[in-house]
Amino acid sequence: MGRAFVYVILGGGVTAGYAALEFTRKGVQPGELCIISEESVAPYERPALSKGYLLPEAPARLPAFHTCVGAIDERLTPKWYKEHGIELVLGTRVKAADLRRKTLLTATGETISYKTLIIATGARALKLEEFGIRGAGAENICYLRSLSDANKLVDVMKASSGGHAVVIGGGYIGMECAAALVTNRIRVTMVFPEAHCMARLFTPKIADFYEEYYESKGVNFIKGTVLASFENNSDGKVMAVILRDGTRVPTDMVVVGIGITPNTSLFEGQLTMDKGGIKVNGQMQTSNSSVYAVGDVAAFPVKLFGGGVRRLEHVDSARQTARHAVSAIMEPGKTREFDYLPFFYSRVFGLSWQFYGDNRGEVVHYGDFAGARFGAYWVDRGRVVGAFLEGGDREEYEAIAKVIRLKIEVKDLAELETQGLNFAVQVNQQGLPDGGRILLEKPIYTWHATAGVVVAVSVAAVAYFYGRRRKIL
């Protein structure tokens, strides 16, 4: 028993939806494309789970956030796939892949063959059980990676209304879930091993702003330590979190955000791996010419980093790599090498920030930290390689992105601090006259073609501590 398709997308996350839309625009014919997903729903915008699904009032619900509404494009409902002759094989796990024979074997025993495969298997959330934490299977311990995770979290929040939650991890998921919990009138304690939140991206000064803001909303921070164990009641629910330093934190629920790991096990030994994922070239093509990889699982060369291979775990990278892979498959002669500008963003409470490039080198802060309108540039070996802005508008975010794409050489950091956001805005407005040079009032900034790229937020430092603990055990 089996089915055959020209193109198969393995994985039903963000990348699958954006790839499907691109396939239709590149002329895929009805019956040629199949999407296989373990989830029981058509691809959706995963960021909506932490940014809208958990809200107590007017929460985001399907079909409102099916892909590709995140890019202000068509919304791909199940009806859309049917109308375009795209087969959705949902609620289905692939247990084996034979890339030489170009076949996939599902858990039900069906064989699905292809001519071209796009691996869009994404990543899974790291679980506390993997680090030997006893009691980690309690029903009031939540993660947030899928729609089913979000549904469980909503139910647990309702049962804990007016109570207290402990959030393990100070990264994206930790910060966004903490904001959602507070909005649901649940008191929050955040626990993480680093000296400040979002330690892989934020400077201490930037982190101080967000921590103070969160504290004004009632969030308590416990930094520099990690979870050691749980204290459960007779029903098996967590009633307190015990930290490594001995602190006991009573709680009604726990949210865990300690990182993710790419889903590559089906392809190990069959494809070249790098950076914890599947290595691809500038066309998103793997070491097997009939197989492509996109999204969280893909390790691809980044031109802004001199072609260095990076694996970026963010929705923007997922969308862009999906589109590029389809273009390379359908129009190989017209598709150039992938040229991606690393981009990260978040929205919590009334705050909104964006970051472009790489956070290495010297940091130049600017703006009004008291008024929630501030930013920073990262300057490495005389060049601006990263830019962060809180509270900007569309034009201003586009401006800081352009600054990174143009790879500026800066001779006076004090002047850069003085100019602040105006520096990027002037660049955006002036363009590149005089053979690639822009003259600001003081001093002269010369533009060169070198690189900057963000190393993706992957596994939070919590996982490092737990990993060490597991090895000791």
From TrEMBL:
<keyword id="KW-0812">Transmembrane</keyword>
<comment type="similarity">
    <text>Belongs to the FAD-dependent oxidoreductase family.</text>
</comment>
<keyword id="KW-0285">Flavoprotein</keyword>
<dbReference type="InterPro" id="IPR016156">
    <property type="entry name" value="FAD/NAD-linked_Rdtase_dimer_sf"/>
</dbReference>
<keyword id="KW-0560">Oxidoreductase</keyword>
<feature type="domain" description="FAD/NAD(P)-binding">
    <location>
        <begin position="7"/>
        <end position="322"/>
    </location>
</feature>
<protein>
    <recommendedName>
        <fullName>monodehydroascorbate reductase (NADH)</fullName>
        <ecNumber>1.6.5.4</ecNumber>
    </recommendedName>
</protein>
<feature type="transmembrane region" description="Helical">
    <location>
        <begin position="445"/>
        <end position="467"/>
    </location>
</feature>
<keyword id="KW-0274">FAD</keyword>
<keyword id="KW-1133">Transmembrane helix</keyword>
<keyword id="KW-0520">NAD</keyword>
<dbReference type="GO" id="GO:0016656">
    <property type="term" value="F:monodehydroascorbate reductase (NADH) activity"/>
</dbReference>
<dbReference type="InterPro" id="IPR050446">
    <property type="entry name" value="FAD-oxidoreductase/Apoptosis"/>
</dbReference>
<feature type="domain" description="Monodehydroascorbate reductase 3-like C-terminal">
    <location>
        <begin position="341"/>
        <end position="424"/>
    </location>
</feature>
<dbReference type="InterPro" id="IPR023753">
    <property type="entry name" value="FAD/NAD-binding_dom"/>
</dbReference>
<keyword id="KW-0676">Redox-active center</keyword>
<dbReference type="Pfam" id="PF07992">
    <property type="entry name" value="Pyr_redox_2"/>
</dbReference>
<keyword id="KW-0472">Membrane</keyword>
<dbReference type="InterPro" id="IPR048618">
    <property type="entry name" value="MDHAR3-like_C"/>
</dbReference>
<dbReference type="GO" id="GO:0005737">
    <property type="term" value="C:cytoplasm"/>
</dbReference>
<dbReference type="InterPro" id="IPR036188">
    <property type="entry name" value="FAD/NAD-bd_sf"/>
</dbReference>
<dbReference type="Pfam" id="PF21791">
    <property type="entry name" value="MDHAR3-like_C"/>
</dbReference>
